[in-house]
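Can't attach files on this board, so I'm pasting raw text. These are the components:
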Amino acid sequence: MTTRRPTIRDVARRAGVSVTTVSHTFTGNGTVAPTTQQRVRAAAHDLGYRPDVIAQGLRRNRLGVIALVARQLDALRPDLLVDVDYFARFAGAAAVASLAEGLGLMLVSDPTGPRAAGAALASDGFIVTEPVTDDPLVAMLTSAGIPFVTVGEVPGVPIGPDSPPHVDIESGRLTTLALDHLWDAGARRIALVTGTDRNEWNLRSAAVYQRWARYRRITPAMVHVPEQLDDEGGRRAATTLLSSGPAPDGVYALTSNHALGVVAVLTEHGLRVPDDVLVVAGSDAESLRAARPTISSIDLQPDELARRAVEALAARLDDRPLPDHGDQRVGRLVVRQSSAPGAPQP
Amino acid sequence: MTTRRPTIRDVARRAGVSVTTVSHTFTGNGTVAPTTQQRVRAAAHDLGYRPDVIAQGLRRNRLGVIALVARQLDALRPDLLVDVDYFARFAGAAAVASLAEGLGLMLVSDPTGPRAAGAALASDGFIVTEPVTDDPLVAMLTSAGIPFVTVGEVPGVPIGPDSPPHVDIESGRLTTLALDHLWDAGARRIALVTGTDRNEWNLRSAAVYQRWARYRRITPAMVHVPEQLDDEGGRRAATTLLSSGPAPDGVYALTSNHALGVVAVLTEHGLRVPDDVLVVAGSDAESLRAARPTISSIDLQPDELARRAVEALAARLDDRPLPDHGDQRVGRLVVRQSSAPGAPQP
DNA sequence: GTGAAAGCGCTAACAA
DNA sequence: TTGTTAGCGCTTTCAC
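---
Top answer:
Structure tokens for the assembled complex are below.
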């Protein structure tokens, strides 16, 4: 009993009006007498009519869907999803923000990849998280003239009037914030653990760290481990640090799971956190709150980043000016036990 | 310089063929001579032609997009996203699985809600996580004849040949698994902490618990707290339990954050976990691994659930028979320190 | 093996 | 205020 779903024409016929009138009453365009509207709505209701979003999309050349390109999905190993908290908070907030803009949110992996779903291209615009150096997706979107917004700058592209619009993740300020915090808490041999993806977060943090180390006159110690290794990556990084020089008394690890691994290895080597070594993670997660000691972090506030990204993209789609966040800073330091040596331990 | 994007007609003209031929070479329908195909593809490449997914969607009456209705999004407070790990793993895996089926995955909140984005209805089908008693969305989808799959049964709907197709979350087996585990580890005053959403997980667990308690001849102690309260909910639950009878020596808390709150309060009251009280969480999360003691859990394996849901929905969309998972069980017990009294503590 | 033509359901000139 | 009509870009009979 699969009866064809009613079209605008069925409604028009039943209401005794033209399709234009039906269209107008639903889109709000043109002018339709209130009484006519009533009749149309009644007819639509009787028939169970819902405008066909796809047909509208074809006609308006706009579907009302934006795509979120999450690089984490490209691993195609969901059980290895890196930084679940960041991903979940970002995706969740993006979905909610899209909703508020009347847009749907599609979750896609890199559409330039081999397994791209054709439907990905149906989106009106793209949000690209963590663009990397020479990002092929950014190149594709640019050349195809498809609107997009990146979260974080595209590394290697000088900021200019026509560099891709992006949401500022403030990696420079936040790196300094974390390092200064470690310094102020007394650390003097501060090491940095980054991931290996060539995105702004990793690259800028490393650069700022180098500069900061020179300024503070400390010897930089830096280790890069793949994000996907999770705790194990942190363990390796810590092992490397311990075996290749004087033990650090402060570690800034950009990924939350790396930080967990670092703390584990430090502890196993008899170093107490925070008494002997201070640790800060560069990304917040529930697991950092649950760990003992609890681990300090930079909370990137993915919710806010996502909101801004969606708003910026929606504005672009409507040719509205981009919202200006002025000096509304995003990202903050969350001090927990791992970097507060004086504080009472439970 | 916004030059109109090339259409199938442009390609046809440039290749000196009809639009039919172009369509055929791209869809694989009909038969096109290899040499002609070459010419068509060359022309398409030169022009930078990509088939318009929306136009295809209109024509085929199928967009290639499915929607994931995550109830967690309905709170519209992404910072309060409950069970981030479950959400992230499910959404991530669903996106990946969709990709493998050539489908896009749209993240939407309940489209029957007031703020529904019209685009949500563009989807070919729906995955509804955690349907609740008298679910309005299920009702809407059913009456509209839109294909959907639920994750977990719709409570209150007797299983029958035409009850909505669902992915089995095995709440009955898993509840028994957790309770038996606590029992085997020596607990005799085992309490249950559930959420308040009226979904299968909460309802079935409670029912099975009651039955199990009768069978084991123990006095049931059950507390229900809203999922959204997170740790605080767990704290309240534990406080209630401690103040309303003999202290439990085993707690099964369905939500990971509730479990964390429970452990915190128990500890504050001088009860040692696992020595005095065993604790198991009904949902796995990174934070449970990071906590001290580490907390045992039922890992629902959202990745697998998501994969099955997507496959089932895709099969339905193609009128293929539903995949049968036989006795391939999903969901498992992860034993950690909180329920292993003998094990060495770090 | 290839092409002409009729729509899919809707919107937006334009006409009345 | 309402109606007629020409498409949006594509797929798909059905001829040739």
